[in-house]
Amino acid sequence: MTNPVTIELQNVVFACPGNTEESYERGARPLAEFYANLLGMRIIREDWFLIADEDDPDGLHLGFGDSPIDYQPPRWPDPAYPQQMHLDITVNNLDAAEQRVLQLGASKLQHTEDFRTYADPASHPFCLYPNTETPTNPSAQIARVVIDCFSPRALADFYADLLDMPNRELDTPERVVITRTDRRLPALAFQHAQFPAPRWPDPAYPQQVHLDLRVPAADEPSLPAARSLANGLGAIELRPGPHHHVYADPAAHPFCL
After folding, report:
1. What Å distances lie between residue 17 and 38, 74, 98, 242, CA to CA?
2. Beta-bridge mates of residue 193
3. Which residues contact 149 (CB under 8 A, 6 or more apart)?
4. CB neighbours (10 Å) of residue 122?
5. Which of 81, 96, 80, 86 has the alpha carbon at shortest distance from 130?
6. What is the Cα–Cα distance from 83 to 94, expressed in whole angstroms?
7. Interatomic CA distance for residues 149 and 152, integer angstroms
């Protein structure tokens, strides 16, 4: 399928403790600082915390502070408190990277032969993998945004068409990985999991992480076409807005467009 409009992944936004200015400073800021230090990024907004790579300002940003009133953190691997999404981060040296993330405030959750899993200071899991693609890259980098869902192939089809990511690096019933034709990171991965789906904006079934998608500024007249594409592919519009619309993908993960 060829997209009639360009839609790009702009932000991955993490829920974290804090719905007042004081608790926001205690919750969102430390989490932003954790990922900024880990990934070599810097904070570029503080009305809600947003970090970006100075060398790639148009690349993926991470946001912090999209929090329900009664924030309930993930408790991986407990499906009653699911992670919903997580980051796969590549590093040159797993042992050195582990020491670094633990010093920054992460907690170790799992150690396997191929990768290691940690919880960030707000309990969001993330994985460290060895960097086999660009081993000269001196810093950690986000290789994949991983989305939990019941049917990886079905949800991969949705995002592959929405974001024009037609290439499949991996395609199994349990896990699918899709990439852009130019191979620019991050890839999107979908892994099989069973858990209570988010029901935004119901705080009893909150989203832990959501995606912000954008139509590039030069293509803004195509925004109605982008919304029509999302609807046609099976997204459900949850809330229209003057600047962005909130949708749920076919697995009920909220995203903003």
Report:
1. 20, 12, 24, 27
2. none
3. 155, 190, 191, 192, 193, 251, 253
4. 22
5. 96
6. 23
7. 6
Give every CB contact of residue 257 below 8 A, 6+ residues apart in sequence: 7, 213, 214, 215, 226, 227, 230, 244, 245, 247
Do residues 123 and 75 make contact, with C-beta atoms less than 8 angstroms apart? yes
Six-digit token string for 138: 């001196």
Structural domains for the chain: 8-256 (3.10.180.10)
Amino acid (1-letter code) at residue 98: E
Tokens 């590549």, located at residue: 90
Q: In what order do the strands lie in the sheet with 246-248?
A: 42-45, 49-52, 61-64, 8-14, 209-214, 254-256, 246-248, 236-239
DSSP letter for each residue of 185-206 = SPEEEEEE---PPP-TT-TTS-
Can you read off the two tokens belonging to residue 66?
């999209």
pLDDT (tens place) for every residue of the chain, 257 residues total: 566 788 999 999 998 876 555 555 667 899 999 999 999 999 999 888 999 998 887 889 999 976 655 678 899 999 888 889 999 999 999 999 999 999 999 999 999 989 999 999 999 999 999 987 765 556 799 999 999 999 999 999 999 999 999 999 999 999 999 999 988 889 999 999 999 898 888 878 888 899 999 988 666 667 889 999 999 999 999 988 777 899 999 999 999 99
Q: Are 34 and 86 in contact (CB under 8 A)?
A: no
